[in-house]
Fold each of these.
Amino acid sequence: MLKKVFTTSQIKKITGASRHESIHVPFYYAPPFLDILREQIKSLLSSSGGRPTIKGAEIVRKVRFSKKNWDELNRIAENFSKSGVSVSPAQVVSTIVEEIISSSRLIKKREKISRRVKVRSVGKVKAKGKERKTNREKEAEVIA
């Protein structure tokens, strides 16, 4: 059964909407994330006889979860384990947390670079013998 896909303009016409806005869907709600997560876990797991462990994960801590979330993590782990590699719910969580932290670092780096670029693009303009601030320079002051 094929799903009918509508364009933005068709949806706008059908619903009578005057505008549309993009909605950010967190990565953990998106099914493609689970496919990527599965492959990432498989590539990180290494075994020396017992249960495979994630390479680079040195610290072991107890973390509390709600029953509902643990059951969902267990379901995901069981689903991943069907591919032949034994995956635990804790390994799923560990990989998700590592991905979130890595992504947030990347976002912060991009923001810093963006701020530096805006500050560097500031210049002075001479008007009738006087120096005055450009709009970009004013923006740079607001950002800083």
Amino acid sequence: MLNSLLMLDNSMLLFVLVALPFIAGFLCLALRNHSARAAVVVLTSVVLMIASVGLLLKGSFQYTMPE
């Protein structure tokens, strides 16, 4: 999982860091089981940590807004 996230380009890593918490939040709202909610939260936090480390390892980059 770490290698596949680190292979993504910087804009895709930014998308994961921004969109994943919203997706996980809506998923937690839909789930009734507290164990399933906890699993979603743990998995989301692991993916966010890996993506953050991936951005840190790739270094800075010039981001240009799409036109």
Amino acid sequence: MSELESFPFGTRTFVMGVLNVTPDSFSGDGVGSDVNAALNRASRFIEEGVDIIDVGGESTRPSGIYDGVQEIQEEEEIRRVIPVINAIKSRTSVVISVDTYKASVALAAVNAGATIVNDIWGMQRDPDMTSVVSSTGCSVVLTHNTRNPEYSDVVQDTIFTLSEMVDKAVQSGVKEESILIDPGIGFGKTVKQNLEILRRLDEYKTIGRPLLVGTSRKSTIGNVLDLPVDDRLEGTAATVALAISKGVDIVRVHDVKEMVRVSRMSDAIVRGWN
């Protein structure tokens, strides 16, 4: 059984906390290669109520993946993430995902204890990623992403593409029950298009897979509020609350304590409280 099959989706919203083991995180919260710092951050997340910890060893900020920033080598990415995953796994039972689009990194992470692969290219970038996911039985997040954003209707077009990605994955041996979808806020979309997606998030439920959304500290919030990356907490909270009202299953966030509270309050309103 994949990790996703154990989550009671529909009962509440689950919170994925971002743990960047990078020196150049766009959000400014990367812990670099300091395993102790990463473990302390993970422990704090757990105390604050996180459900999943998403470990990333390469910055995937949209401005970096499109403008020719040099990608790090697979060996370096593995060197960054595996000690952290090992440390978290040896001390906690929290669910771990790995934020990577490289098959070799995903395989190493799953072997170390990660059970979800969060691929911002939706298994379209590395031809070996599908076989890693299907052979290990791990869960996978398929994110909509494109270098050439041309849409007639950004929501319907991304729904169509995500549906195709799900079908392709299943045809390649990935269990449908192990797939999450992410509309890719900030990836190949303008500010107006990102806001349109947020307004119409409920339409993505027609794909039939659990929905993950990551808006935390992103430039859309910065552009709307004219605020730097370290001052976007309230903007993030607004997008998280809206996403939950639209039926999102998982929110990916940097500020775990605050967004767990936002999620619980939003769930009480949307799903009922007892």
